[in-house]
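If your schedule permits, I should be very grateful for your opinion on a structural question. Thank you for your consideration; the sequence and its tokens are set out here:

===
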Amino acid sequence: MNATSILHREPHLRIAIGLMGALALGACASMPPPTSNMQAAHQAIAGAEQAEAARYAPAELSEARAKLAAAATAVSAQRMTMAARLAEESRAEAELATSKSAQVKAETANDDMKRSTRILINEMQRSSGETP
């Protein structure tokens, strides 16, 4: 017995399959905009801007902004799944920009401390009469 003969013999099965298909299509069509994803991306970009990502991680910040704009375009085109994905990618790029900014600042502070330590050691050696 094949699937076609089962469907002909069981009208309830045909109705059930038809209803499941209609529900699946309806669920896709009525998917709400990814508002929380978009807000999270906006907040992450704002955080990256406060972390001076425009100075320390401009490529990542630019990518985050571009993906958020693409997410807004996808919402306008009723492509909510794509919009949600793009908003999440935007948030991730903004968080990367924030992290890179923090890393560059930390490396700069570390380099400054190393330089200050070398200067202090040289001064101490000079004051004590030692040669470096």
Observations:
- The first helix runs from residue 3 to 9.
- Helices lie at 3-9, 11-29, 35-50, 53-56, 58-76, 80-128.
